[in-house]
């Protein structure tokens, strides 16, 4: 309500300053109560405007009455245009220029209302050059003409040299003179003023003719649509006399394009909570402009933001306040600097006088100082020569120490590199030994499986010999069993051959691992020699000694002699059992 009160006060101020309150104060108050829909208080009105020392020209004044009995009771349910027109009527006759203007009285009234919207919040009311430029740009854009920035800059310079801004009546004269609308006729200027008035004062974000589909008869009717921050109203025509309905907008509304249907093109849909509205624009450009304008309005409602032109006005005002504060701060700093400069000038004057006195004293002491200077110069020359010799010796020692330090650091880096390479060689040797152990375990498993297969074959061979010694009566039956066992024997032989192949592959893997181990051992021995050559700073960790390997018919064995003897005893025991 504070913002509404400020807007009302600007219009009332014009009427207030144009009237003689001793004669017309009651009339102004009565008219304000009427247009603002505020209940009349005849008792308070007569009490305030009685002809004694407490009247409107007393210390009590008119503004306290206006605030207490009128403005504080305003609820916002009044016609702003009618309110402004009432205030305009009271002040226009006295202040409006009598000379010929390019705009009509109605257009002058709209310019006056726009002035109240854009003027500064201080009295007497003026509009600053930045807001004048904004308004003239809007009017030029509405007229479809090009903005003449250079011409306005000259006007702005001339204006700033004489005053801070223009009054409402000076602004009307400026626009009515056609200075910034040359070549435009009266009707074009009037249409531009009306368009800017609708946008800034009536909050009309967009308006135009479109077709609307009915909800009952489903017919299409042309309507004049007016988009405002929270509502879309549609009328029979653009004179706004016959209103047909409203589309209430809120944060839950949405708008989306529709495909052409029923012979209608450029369709879009406005969805609200209670119902939806199908609308057809005149062309694709208008359709896109309306969709974008409605969606922007819904987004502002969701965010709780004011209309774009009000938000832009507030930002321009905040920017001007910020620039003014910075300018005032700069002026304050300049004054402080000027004061400090004056103080410095005084200090410099005192210092100059002191220097003159010191110069007089220095002239007297100059002769003594010259003699002392010669003596000191000779002494300093000798000391300087000695210092140069000492410095030269120290530089030679520093260079020698730097060279030794560089050699030592180089040697340390070489040893660190050798240590890293030795670590890598040891890792390779360790990996080779692990691979060798894996191959040994695999070879042992294959030998165990081979021995088990051989024991089974010997057992089957003994069973065949026993079968041959049986009687002829059992020979036919045994022959069948022998054939079955022969097939099993062949399968076992095939498995034995397969195991033989696997053993050979394991032996080849073992040979490869052995070669890797020998390579790693050679690398270790090579690095050991290098490390021993560098004064033995690093000691190698060598692997322990290994027992000699056993050699079987199929290659190196993966077990010791004791394990071999144990396995031979096991085989003999199995053979004796089978016999």
UniProtKB/TrEMBL annotation:
SUPFAM superfamilies cross-referenced by the UniProt entry: PH domain-like
Any one cellular-component term (Gene Ontology): lamellipodium
Location relative to the cell: Cell membrane; Cell projection, Lamellipodium; Cytoplasm; Nucleus
Coiled coil: 309-530
Keywords: Cell membrane, Cell projection, Coiled coil, Cytoplasm, DNA-binding, Membrane, Nucleus, Phosphoprotein
Domain PH: 203-299
GO molecular function: DNA binding
Domain of life per record: Eukaryota
Transmembrane segments: none
Keyword Aminoacyl-tRNA synthetase attributed: no
Matches recorded under InterPro entries: EF-hand_SWAP70_N (IPR057836), PH-like_dom_sf (IPR011993), PH_domain (IPR001849), PH_SWAP70 (IPR057837)
PROSITE patterns registered for this protein in UniProt: PH_DOMAIN (PS50003)
Pfam family, one: PH
Gene3D superfamilies associated with the record: Pleckstrin-homology domain (PH domain)/Phosphotyrosine-binding domain (PTB)
Record text on subunit structure and interactions: The SWAP complex consists of NPM1, NCL, PARP1 and SWAP70.
Role summary: Phosphatidylinositol 3,4,5-trisphosphate-dependent guanine nucleotide exchange factor (GEF) which, independently of RAS, transduces signals from tyrosine kinase receptors to RAC. It also mediates signaling of membrane ruffling. Regulates the actin cytoskeleton as an effector or adapter protein in response to agonist stimulated phosphatidylinositol (3,4)-bisphosphate production and cell protrusion.
Record protein name field: Switch-associated protein 70
Gene: Swap70
